Structures are given as structure tokens and as C-alpha cells.
Amino acid sequence: MVKKKKSDEIVMMQKEKQNGRRKRSIVFVGAVLVGLIAVTFTSITTSFSLFFFKHLNSCSCSSQSPQKYTGLIEDCCCDYETVDSINGEVLHPLLRDLVVTPFFRYYKVKLWCHCPFWPDDDMCRLRDCSVCECPENEFPEPFKKPLHHVLPSHNLVCPEGKPESSVDRTLDSRAFRGWIETDNPWTNDDETDNDEMTYVNLQLNPERYTGYTGPSARRIWDAVYSENCPRYSTGEICQEKKVLYKLISGLHSSISIHLAADYLLDETTNMWGQNLEILYDRVLKYPDRVRNLYFTFLFVLRAVTKATDYLEQAEYDTGNHEEDLKTQSLMSQLLYNPKLRAACPLPFDEAKLWQGQSGPQLKQQIQKQFRNISALMDCVGCEKCRLWGKLQVLGLGTALKILFSVDAHNSHLQSLQLQRNEVIALINLLNRLSESVKFVNERGSSIEKLLQGKIAEPELAIHQVSTLQRIWKFVVELRLGKQL
Fold first, then answer.
1. Least confident window among 99-108, 183-192, 421-430
2. In 337-419, which residue ranges form alpha helices assigned H by DSSP?
3. Which pLDDT belongs to residue 256?
4. Which pLDDT value is given to residue 59?
5. Structural contact between residues 397 and 192, judged by C-beta atoms closer than 8 angstroms
6. Percent of the chain residues topping a pLDDT of 70
7. Pick the residue with more confidence: 454 or 78?
8. Distance separating alpha carbons of residues 331 and 429, to the nearest angstrom
């Protein structure tokens, strides 16, 4: 009896010892688990805090970001710092006010066209694709009056029988003789065919995302680049063809920026905003596209400054005397701004082009290529995209026409003549480019940092999950070991 009682006591003592060891192991494992989780959580919290505050600072203090593009802009006569400064201080405010005036607000365009290269495909799926046309009683009365007609100015020939190849930097100071109606030799549309053209209020039809994407949209740009201005390699292309490629690339970058900056984020709630991923993937990730944007901006700016006398004397008549005086004043401020003239007196030197014996033939070849690019705008399957494509290509064609016009002081040659629609397109294009340059300067660096951080974020999350998995595996093995 006594032996049995002692045996029971021994068994009880062994069970108590086992329970004690089990409790201590649980406490130990729990302490280890809590410690490791605390370390991991601290790491996650620290990483999130750094990520959050880095993005917060990049958005709120973007103007303090270091400037990525510095020095002289390739093939131009101004540097990035000067362009950003003068654009933000002078050009952008003036252009922003100019394009909303009655004269520059209404644009005449041929929207119903057949694509000359392939069957039409209206691939736009949003209501924002359609263009709101002006009723006849809305656009200015003077726009309805017939304009002067002149003979086509292309294919001019010198008295010796050779095409004119020299580039003149000046225009006749008495060049403006009233708005005329004539075709632009650099573009495809017949601007004299008024029966097929309609006026559009550009303020009611902003350049923005329309849902026009996919193969149809890509086919347009593929045709532009592959058939008319293929990408150049250093030393493998002449300067003139290089200029054409950079102009189209810069225009493409500007269009992409505007579509991404005014993007339909949620179709069900009709919420619009900035799509930074598209902006980064299509433009900011490629430095050459940003550089070409600046080049195109200075090229068009040079055309405007070269035509200073012509544009200053032009009649900005819409029938609204007060608004017309305001338009004339804004144009004078743009053309004769002392800060602009001092900072960048010659944005682009067009006299360097078309030199040598092959100059005239090369000019005709590139002019033909640009006309083909202009004709491709009729193949755009989105009405609003077609509107802004036509306007900006005409604006670029007008810049080419101004910069590479014939010598206005030669009595044997016809002086430069611009139609009203060309000037409207030119100033609106310059404004679009100015807005794009301003956006890149103010937000470009911060957006790049933001998107590069988001690319690294999934890798951080995967690492943190794998750490927790290792902790859990360690705890399980530790408990199994204690039990064994």
C-alpha cells in the first residue's frame, strides 16, 4: 500500500515537471514569435513610412526636385533652364490667355474624310470621342466673310530655272495684306473647300483621353514613323530628316502628355484625373522623347518670332471690339516680350538647313513626307482625336511654311501669305507644347521617383511575406521538437 502511494506521487511529480517544461517552451516560443513579428512589423512600418513620406514630399515639393535636363538643347540655340524659366514666367501665361479669346477659340476643320490608305474604322467607344460643332450663329461673323484667293505658292522656281533653296531669316515687314484663302504646301487638306468644313469651339472640345487605343491607334503612329520619318541613328541620316523625326516625336510626346494628364480613371463614375503610369511609360521613361518635346517647342516658337511683323499687323477681328483689342494686346506682348528676346533671341537656326546642291530636292522630299503625315490624320478613327491631330499637324506645317519660306525681299518671288486658320493652329499648337513643357518641368522628376518606388514596392511586399513564412516554419519546427 505504501509502495503504491509513493509510485503515484512519483507519477504526479513527473507530470508536473512535464507541464512546467511545456509551459516554459510555450512561453519561450511565444516570446520568440512576438519578437520576430515585432521586428518584421517594424520593418514593414518603417518601409511604408519611408515610402509614404517620400511620395508625399515628391507631390508637395515637386518644384524643389533636381532638374534632370540641363544644358543646351540639341540643334537649338537655348538651354533647358532658360526655356523652363521663360516658359513658366512669360510664354505659358500669355498663351493660356490667348487661346481662349474668340479669335483663337474657333477652328475650321474638315472632320468627315475618307482615309486614303486603308478602310475607315471608327474604333472610339466613348462619348468623349465626338466633337461638339458650332451652330452657325455662334462663331464670329467676320469668319463667314469670303477671303482673298491667291495662286498656290508651292513649286516656286527661280529665274535661272532652279528651285529656290536658300533660307531667309526675315519676313517682309509689310507682309500682311489681309487674310487669304490658300492651301499650305506642307499639308494635305484643301483649305479652300469650305463646303466640307465646319467651325469647332476648341474650348468645348478639349484634347483629352477618349478611349481611342489599341491596334487602330497604333497603326496611325506606325505609319507615321515607319513610312515617313523612320527613327535615325547617329551619323546615318541627314540633318533635315533628323529634324523631321524630332518634330514628330516631340509632337507625339506632347499629345501623350495631354491624354495622360486628363484621363478617364473610372468610366462608371465619370471620374477624370492624371494617369501617371501612362505618362511615365509613354514619355518620361524615355529621355529622348522629352528632349524632342523641347526641340519641337523651340522650333514652333522660332516660327512665331520670325513672323513677328506679319502677326503683329494681322487683323484679329471677330466683331467683338473689346475682345479683339485684348487679343491684339496679348499678341503684341508675346511677340515683343523683352524677357523672351533677351533670354532666347533665336530659338532655332533654320538657316543651317537645305544647304548644298541637293537642298532643293531634299526639301521637296521632306515636304512630301509631311504631307503624307497630314493625310494620315484622315485615318484617325476618333473624331476628337482627328480634330486635334489635324489642328496640330497644320500648326506644325505652318511653322515649316514660315521658317522655310522664300526670300520675301526678292521681287521675283511671292512673299509669305498665311491664312487665318493657319495662325489659329500655330498659336494653339504652341500653347499645347508650352503646357507639356511646363508639366514635365514641374512634375516630371517627382513622377519618375513615384513610379520607380511603386515598381520596387511589390518586391518589398514579397520579401516581407517570405520573412513571415520563415518565422512560422521556425515556430512549428520548434514546437514539434519540444513535443518529441
1. 183-192
2. 338-343, 359-376, 383-403
3. 95
4. 37
5. no
6. 62
7. 78
8. 15
The single residue listed with the C-alpha cell 513535443 is 483
Element housing 252 (H / E) = helix 239-261
- In b/e form, how buried is each residue of 28-59, taking b as 16+ CB within 10 angstroms? ebeeeeeebeeebeeebeebeeebeeeeeebe
Q: Which of 448, 450, 432, 375 is nearest to 223 (CA)?
A: 375
Closest by Cα among 348, 336, 307 to 83: 348
Is the confidence at residue 139, as pLDDT, over 60? no
Q: Strand pairing partners for 109? A: 198
Q: Which three cell numbers stand for residue 273?
A: 484625373
Q: Beta strands of 143-194 (E only): which ranges?
A: 148-149, 180-181
Cell 483663337, located at residue: 104
pLDDT tier at 476, thresholds 50, 70, 90? low
- pLDDT tens across 167-218, in order? 333 444 444 556 777 778 888 876 666 667 888 899 988 998 888 877 888 8
Tell me which residue of 445, 434, 342, 430 sits closest to 394, measured CA to CA: 430
Rounded distance between C-alpha atoms, residue 74 and residue 82, angstroms: 14
Q: Supply φ then ψ for residue 199, to 5 degrees.
A: -90, 140
Name which of 434, 397, 403, 404 is nearest 419 in CA terms. Answer: 397
- Whole-model pTM: value is 0.73
Contact 198, 108 (CB under 8 A): yes
* Chain position carrying cell 512630301: 368
Residue 148, strand partner residues: 180
The span from the CA of 255 to the CA of 257, in Å, is 5
CA 484 and chain centroid, separation: 68
How far is Cα 107 from Cα 75, in angstroms, rounded to an integer?
Answer: 32
Region for 163 from its dihedrals, namely left if φ exceeds 0, alpha if ψ lies in -120 to 50, beta otherwise: beta
- Model confidence pLDDT, tens digit, residues 35-87: 555 545 444 444 434 333 333 333 333 444 556 788 989 888 899 999 999 99
CA gap 65, 58 in Å, rounded: 8
**Structural Rg of the chain based on CA atoms:** 33
The reported pLDDT for the residue numbered 104 is 95
